[in-house]
Amino acid sequence: MAASPDLRFDTGAAWLDLLATVGGAYGAEPVERLTDPPVLQHWLDHHDLAAGRPPTDADVASARALRETLRPLTLAVLDGAPVPTEPLQALQHWLDADVALHAIERDGRPAPAPPPTPAAALARVARQALEHLGGPHAEQLHACAADDCRMAFLDPGGRRRWCAPERCGVRARVRAHRARSRATRG
Question: What is the set of domains in the chain, with CATH numbers?
Answer without folding.
Answer: 2-185 (1.10.3300.10)
